[in-house]
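Lab notebook, entry 202. We have the chain sequence and a SMILES string for flavin mononucleotide, and the next step in the workflow is to get a structural model of the bound complex before anyone spends time on docking refinements. Request logged below.

Task: model protein plus flavin mononucleotide, output structure tokens.
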Amino acid sequence: MSIHILLKNTAYHQIAPYVREVQYLSNPSAAFLVKTMRSLVVYYSRTGNTKAVGEEIARELGAKRDEIIDLKKRTGLRPIRWIIAGKDAWQRKLTKIKFGESPEEYDMIIVGTPVWAGKMTPAVRTYLTSHDLNGKNLGFFSTALRDSGKPFEEMEKLAPGASIIGTLGLRASEIRSGSYREKVRSFVKALRESTKTAAREA
Ligand SMILES: Cc1cc2nc3c(=O)[nH]c(=O)nc-3n(C[C@H](O)[C@H](O)[C@H](O)COP(=O)(O)O)c2cc1C
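Result returned:
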């Protein structure tokens, strides 16, 4: 059974988190169903850059947002914790994490990480390792001083069976200057396009 609701003056991003299926009528005689994704943006952030990008993506996408907390203390005691963080990432260590949303309940999951020692953070490695994202539409984003795209290949390997629908690598300088917003808009547009195509083909 389907329920038809006519929404006027309602921006898509206001309703998107609550909508599972939308009936599009291309013309009165040919109705086809496009499955609208339930979307989640989830990220780890130590100093706020990745969080700022995650918030912007969630806003543009109309997605639910969730922050991964690393239960190992990563701030203070400079430079000791910084060195340990880099070493943990480099050695592909896992950690204990906390998060709010269950990604299994979403169709599209966009995962963000800062780059540490050229790799994803232990918190994001743990998150990807501990969830079965087979069959999900998955996007990645990362922030770094320069190596912003480096962790994507390995992140993809940790999510076998997922469709990778887009990646976005940003530099910390782009976040400081605000120029990341334009790139986020293009990224979200591309995510929408690729999920629309997938729904049409299904
Ligand atoms: C332990 C550690 C290692 C880092 N390693 C790299 C690196 O290999 N390449 C790089 O470009 N930036 C590196 N950075 C910089 C961060 O990726 C960058 O500042 C990022 O935007 C921080 O994100 P956040 O504010 O969300 O924590 C490193 C930062 C830390 C704390």
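Notes for the group: The pocket of flavin mononucleotide is lined by residues 45-51, 82, 85-86, 114-118, 143-147, 172 (CB under 6 Å). Worth checking against the assay data. The chain has one domain: 38-192.
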